[in-house]
Design brief:
About 40% of the residues lie in helices and about 20% in strands. The structure holds calcium ion.
Length: about 220
Amino acid sequence: MRLLVVEDDAMIGNSLRSGLRQDGYTVDWVRDGAAGELATATTAYDAILLDLGLPGRSGLELLARWRARQNPVPVLIITARDSVADRVLGLDTGADDYLVKPFDLDELTARLRALLRRRAGRATPVIENGPLTLDPASHEVRLDGIEISLSAREFGILHALMEAPGVPLSRSQLEERLYGWQEEIGSNAVEVHIHALRRKLGSDRIRNVRGVGYMVPRET
Ligand code: CA
């Protein structure tokens, strides 16, 4: 899952980036409104953490622009502005959730998981597909109830595919989910991870759709 953090405070931005990376997210961090605008024009994010008081364009202006362009990306506002009027304005401008600074990273990541779950149209926290289950909170993957140990990238790929069973994702879509701006991507990195996943889960669990990409077939 790839996140954009729009935050001008260096300390908060740094701790968010490292904390979220430790939780398995791919994180891009920008420090002003213009960079936030550029980032969302060039990259598809799974969710955005948005500060309101930013140099140049404000967070609310950014949010209003995304929504005016029909960009449905889940947005969680993180701000020191804690009046009821501010919270109402943020939500009514199109934010999905609102967290007042200082906040706890555990609460932030729980809210993120809730946003991503709603976006995927899922009622349950654990993703199930046939005998395979994936828990975004604990990072546990089980096949027929038996825990399968996966690397962070393998987990990221499986998570992306299991959010939309039956829908193929291309190699570049998976790369976009897994790798931030500064990260070097090996030419066959995704294939290597898919190969490892098939070895661990069984080759039928991830299908290669010729010329399109990879998918987890929907199982009941
Ligand atoms: Ca700020």
